[in-house]
């Protein structure tokens, strides 16, 4: 019954094909329940259709009346999950693909390490055609993650599982970042209060799409990231370096940014 402690939260907006691929990628030795929140899509998913393609656990579907931002959709799902019996919440994005036994490996680690409150993994980065680009390898140790959170989020959001009880301390996603960087603000708050780690294994295929939020709203994302850094600012190498770095990133393209990450391991270490 290990999977019954876990529910996966997916915010959906106008990407039914990606949603279906993501659901079909979940391959575990136990049932995994799913909470899907549609953020006012033009073509909305239906519960009957979702249940017809996903049969490895319970499916919950919430339909928001209008598009309000992924942060609002995620918070709606989190608020509902807070009232349910699950102890662990996983995040997953439409279009991204789990590798086999991803959740089994994370749950095993969390069971062995009850002091770890947030657990991410590494990920294969691919383009829209599915061509492999690089493996994104964030730090695994908590102390290094705490330092490098100033540079960028040290968690790949759709890889993360966190213990629901952290919401009692840090709350939900911040409203002011509902359109971009809400996960960065959330995990920064979590890292300040709780032990957070990454598994040193690529357990997700992360698709970089031209229409993704991180691409379309890239400048807003970097701008919000700078605000978050300033909110947590303390004098030291990483806070000062991060402000300079993100100011530079604000003026360059997403494509050039990805090339720099690949060539220099900008976020790694």
UniProtKB/TrEMBL annotation:
Residues 8-170 form the Glycosyltransferase 2-like domain. It comes from the Bacteria. Pfam families: Glycos_transf_2. This is Glycosyltransferase 2-like domain-containing protein. It comes from Moheibacter stercoris.
